[in-house]
Amino acid sequence: MIRFIQWLHRWVSLILVIQVVLWLVSGFFFSITGHEGMSGHQYMVTNTPEPALKKIAPKIRFREMHQRFPSAHSIEIVSVAGVGQYQVTLADERVLYFNADTGETWSTNEALAKQLALSSYNGPGQVEAVERVTGSDEVNGWKASGFRIDMADDLNTRIYVDEASSQVVEHRNTPWTIADWAFRLHFMDYTGGRSFNHLLIWSAGLFALWFSLSGLILLGRNITNGDFNPNRKKTWLEYFQQKGKPIASSCGGGGTCGLCKVTLQGSDIPSPKAAEKALLSANELDAGMRLSCQHRTSTNYEVKLHNEGVSDIALTLDSKRQLTPSIMELTFVSSEPVNYEAGQFMQFRIPHINEILSRHYSVATRPHPTRFVFNIRQLPSPSEGVPPGVGSNYLCNLEAGARVDAVGPFGDFQLAKQNSHTQVFIGGGAGIAPLRALIQSELAAGSPRRCIFFYGARYEKELCYRDEFERDERLYYIPVLSEVAKSDEWAGHTGFVHEIAMKWLADENKNTLDVYVCGPPPMLKATLKSLADFGVPREQVRFDDFGI
Fold first, then answer.
1. How far is CA 144 from CA 134, 136, 162, 457, in A?
2. pLDDT at position 194, please?
3. Does 516 score more than 50 pLDDT?
4. Which residue range is the domain that position 17 belongs to?
5. Where is the FAD-binding FR-type domain positioned along the sequence (predicted)?
6. The sheet that has 261-265: what strands, in order across it?
7. Is the distance from CB of 81 to CB of 71 less than 8 angstroms?
8. Which residue from 541, 522, 356, 350 is spatially nearest to 428, judged by alpha carbons?
């Protein structure tokens, strides 16, 4: 439950931070623009209909109008472009308009609308277009028929004239449009309803309430755990990192990556936390495996690291090639032999400005003492001003002969041993790296087990190592495309790779399978859920989450 609260608290905080930024930006815009700059009235002349009085002599007398509408709340006569107009307000507050010369219902044609619009305008432009409209999103509450007169000026002025009354309803222009969107962002009123009583406001209130309550829950948990105590004990992860011991972590001790595994030995080992129950199997927990970030140092038990063979490795780039439009293969060599298992990864040290960053990449071939192949997914800049992926950009721009420092090997994403189970591999994108290593190692064995490989990509050109997998008759290779390009002459499977895998799985004995999963986080999450729903024992499923 705490893990879910942490996850939701983090995402709600992001939403709230975004809204606070919108408040600050829109508020600053209001302060520098001012009311007049946002009104849309820069070129508007107030042109209120004049009382007729002695200026006109209507042919339809006031007494006649009163006889027609004896229960009217009020009857007024005004001058519109020199013509008398009766405005009759009924008891139900409806207003009717009549020509004071003919007694007929008042009517506004295009020429009159243009004349009235120009009489309310003192800008430098000329009429560009006149269009009949029924209401407008730019004029709140006005749903009647009328005209929009577009002026050719520097502000793109638009004048709205009501057909029934000949009244100039509003002036709108580009500064007003910008201000309108600023108001929508500021008041979270994206529908333009000019109301605080809508679903988004209710949701924002609930989100804020949840953020406050979950924050208090997490604060209480941190206080209970002694996180604010300067004399508190370190977690085992902090301890090993300070001692320079070989231990991996991608989440900074948040209990979400599952890489900092250790084995606790003794009669008084702590019970597993929620994060450990989510990331470790029942067999692993029973064997004393825990996450070092979840427990503080103690003398009540012993701690065994899983990566005692980890060491610093100096790698030299030997070659590189573009596997797909988004994945590059880099081949490094080492002067010193390194012992590792298929499926393990290296921790690269990436220089960036004034610091050294760590990035994890799995070896993409079966073990070789001095030669290491990695698949790097290139992460270009998503937009101007946003930098590209630091690690991938650095590595993919290296030239042959360049040297990189790494630490490893890490990880326990390895082949199951001592059984005759069918080996099922499900992957997508750059997740092919450790899966390819596992497949190569299995097929290189004296008596390889049955191997099935489901690999998903968006387009045909993104299928990594396709020729290699199709050539090996010992491997049942099933590529799946989620999006088929018009240029692809594709006759294979389409859809999501985990769905195709589950169709195959439906006819198999779930207890005789070992399943290995690696791919983008959404694909990984969906696959693990499907495997659990299909009844594949948790102990027979191994996964590598490279997307954390």
1. 5, 9, 7, 53
2. 65
3. yes
4. 2-39+179-216
5. 310-416
6. 289-291, 261-265, 302-305
7. no
8. 522
